[in-house]
Structures are given as C-alpha cells and as structure tokens.
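fwd from M.: "can u put these together and see what the complex looks like"

so here's what she sent:
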Amino acid sequence: MGLCTGCSLLCDDIVVELDGDKIGKTMNLCRKGHAHYNSLGSERLTPSVGGSQVGIEDAARAAGELLAGAENPLLFGWEGSTLEAQRAGVDLAKKLGSAIDGPSSYSQGMIAEKILAGEIPTCTFDDVRNFADVSIYWGDDPSSSHPRHMSRFSYFPRGEKRQKGYEEDREAIVIDVRKSPTAQIAADGFFKISPGGDGAFIEALTAALAGKIPKVEDKKRMLNLATKLRKAKFGAIFTGLGLAHSLRGDLSGFTALVGKLNELARFSVIPSLGDYNTRGFNQTLFDETGHVDAVSFKDGVSYGRKFGIARFLDSCDAVMVVGSDPAAVLPAALARKLAKVPMVAVGSHRTITSGLARVSVPTAVAGLEAGGAGLRTDGVKVEFDRLVGSVHLSDADVIRRIMEEV
Amino acid sequence: MISAMEVYQLLPKTNCKRCGLPTCMAFAVGLLGREKKIEDCTPLLEEAKYEKKLAGLRELLAPILSADATETGMVIHPEKCYGCGNCVVACPVNVANDPKGTAIGRGPVSGKAILMVEDGVVKCVHVDECRRFGPEKVLCNACIATCPSKAIEFI
C-alpha cells in the first residue's frame, strides 16, 4: 500500500506495482495523484547557482550564504514539505531572525487559525464518514481540487451511523458562484451566489435560522435550507478558497453562524487546504508562535500582515521558497516583485518560481522517494515511508544542511 | 442515449420478418439490446436503395458496436474522468460485495468490483456483476448520476 502526497487528503489505500525504481500500474489514485506519482521522472529540479549546474553541497552552501548575508530574509512556502522539514524551517527562521510565511496568508489561513485556536469547532474525516448527515461545501469544489474528498470521506461512503448511503442518509449542500462539478452532484442542494456574496448569504441564513424572513430573492428556498439544517444531527462544513477570499478576512459573521448552528446540532468545519501538508505548517507554526503564518523572528516573535509575502516583499532582500510555487499563483504585480528578490528555491520539481531563483536545491519527493509525516487537511497525522530509491536528499535533510551553512 | 425510434427510422420499415422478428421496430430494439446484428436485416444489405440508411445506421450504432462499450452498454470517456472514484463507491453492487473496501470509501479489496480506478481513470472490470447485465437487468444509474464530469454514459 502506498500513500499519495498529491493533495491534502493523503489517501493511504494506493496500490502500486513497482518496476525497480519506476512506477508501474497504480490502483485507486485519482487523476491528480496519478500525475503526481508519474512526475517522478520529469521536470526534476537540479542543483544550480546563478544558472550553472553545481553539486548539491555547493548549492546548499550558496543558499546558506545568500540567507546569512541578508538583512530581512523571508522563508516562504512549506505546504509541500514534511513536518520534519517544517520543524527545521522554523528553527532556521529563528536562527536567521527572519520572517516565515506560507500560502495560507493569502488563502485559508484565517479559518485555519480559528480552528487551531478552538474558536471554530472541527472534527476528523472519520467522524464525517461515520456520523455526518449534512455536508456543506462552501466556496469549495473538491471534485476538482481534492477528487476523492466526496468518495472517501464526505458524501458517498457508508459509516457507522450512515449505513444506507448517500441517497437516504446524507445531504450535500453546495454554496458557490458557479455550478461547479461538485454542485452538479448536489443538484437540488446547490445555492448560487454572486462573487463576494458570501457575507450576504451568511446574514440571510443566520436570519432564517432565527426564524426571521431572510433578505434574499428566493426566501422560501433559504427558509427550507434553514429547516434542513435545524433537523441535521451532525453537520460538516467544508470551506474553500471561494469563502476565504470573499469574506476578506472578516470571519465574525461566519464564526457566529457556526456558533448558531452548534446550538442546534454539532456542526464542524474542515477547510479544504491545497497542498499535502498545508495543515502541518499551520500547526507547526501555531504550536511555536500561536499564529499559522506571517510571523517574524527578528525581535522575538512578532505577528502581522506586514510579515505576509504580499507586503513583506517590499522590504525583503532574500527569500527562500520551500516546496511551493508562489510565482504561479500570486497576482502578476506581486510575482514581478518576487522575481526581483534574490531567491533560493528548494523543492522536488522545476516550477515557475524555481526558474526565477538564483540558487536551486533539489529534494526528494516526500511519500515516494523519502519518508516523513504530514497532517491531513482535517489535522490527522499520517506517517509515510518511501516507495522507491532516490539520489536526492529528503527536504528535512536539505533544510538542515542549509542551516549548517548559515 | 440512442432511442429505438432513431434506429427504426434507418431500417427498411417493411416488416418483412426475414430477421426472425415480427416488425422492424422489434428489430430496432433487438439491435439496441445487442441481440441482433445489422447483418440480420438482409434487405438493408442487399438492396441498393437502402445504401444511405445502412451507412447512417452503422454510424449511429458505432458507439454500441465499438470495443469501448461493455456488454451493458457502458461507455467510459477516460479523457473526461477525474478518477475521483465516486462511481466506485456509489455503485450498490460494489458496496454489497466489498464491505471493507468500497463501502467505506476505500479502494476495492474484494476482487469483485465492477468499477475501479486504475492509473487515474475509472475502468469497468467485472461487468457481469452490473445490475444492467443479463436478461433480468435493472436500469440502475448510480455511476452516471454521481459522476462530476459526465465521463460515464450508457448507450
């Protein structure tokens, strides 16, 4: 049995036929996971300094020197790194007195922080499978982003108290700006909102739950939804980037709604985070500092949006990107700023970001070429071994090697 | 989904009974159910005036007669499939045969699964277990209704 580090579901029922160190036939991998497994042999990062190929030792040394010589370095990424590498990353940030941040600062970091702080209730996927009768996908399209989400955990499987299957025992509700592939499955449970309309939807649903007439076009449908939620025995809310971006950092309405729902029945929130160990980085940094991203170790521990990549790039004079590709997802203006900062890229594959880097340090692919541990998007720790041999060092070893050079 | 009426329109409509069935409509249904072959309609092959109809019929029935289609008429479009496994877990027969695997959302372990995900896309393996198979078939549509990308269809 193999494990897939293609997304944050960390599916552990993968059957792989190996041909030496090559991946042969695979079973149970989704399309995304299959592409992840088959990426082993293509587009791999090679150690380089200033565009010239060097040995891994020279690349690590150059990375260490670049970071040590900087006034305001930033260590960014970590969502595609093992827990061990993330731990080493926090130690490196402390040693350098640098800022450390991850993509959650522009995605679901605020939701993750509230969950870790216990302000929003959460549960595991096993609880969802065993008990949930209502699954709400809010600004979230797991069919596209986490293909096995619905089939493994949240909607289709049978569980302890959900023996009759999805048709009788479960209800899927999708709140989104478009009829996504997930919304097609939910059919009648799809609520279309306008972009940025999540706040208004929260208000309307809160009003409907309180027995007031909601201020929406289709009042009857909203009241029906409120009735459905009132009758729920165990609800799960899966949040996506759509909700996080729409609320623009103001989670008060959402937190109040979840609180209100919890007066009726148990409702838990599980964010659908992107890369395989985003939750791990959030947890590692939260355990150390009480925040999930945008932290600086320059003068003790300080936290603030100014230490997030979007604003810190203005004053940053060196950046190390680990297991991430921010240049591919940041808005063009920010990506241009990032391109101008001297950069070290640490990762398994060539990316747009690694193409901009002055120093590249390759790592093994976690879960395939190197073992380690990660946190699934619901916070469950999953350990994995390597499947095939590799000439590359694990990401944790690479970070420790760079730390020695600082 | 091809209807029997579409097939009927491309038949001679003479009810000559040479195929062994009483009417051309019955033959159309037989063709769709794979109980009859186009060649069983001899006038269609022998008479030149039906040439156009024959070509149209072959074109219409190409998906059913292709190697991709299973005996139940299921066609999987691998280029559309996400490999999500919704169909694998939603299939009532898979669930009944595999309480420790597909029933709880994991990959099939029983060795009797009708559908399973191989190399990132779904594949039909034990078609004889499908509710749509054989003379006592039931028109189950669990695998189609749960597919987010419309990668499965029955013809």
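replying to her w this: The mean pLDDT of chain B is 87.
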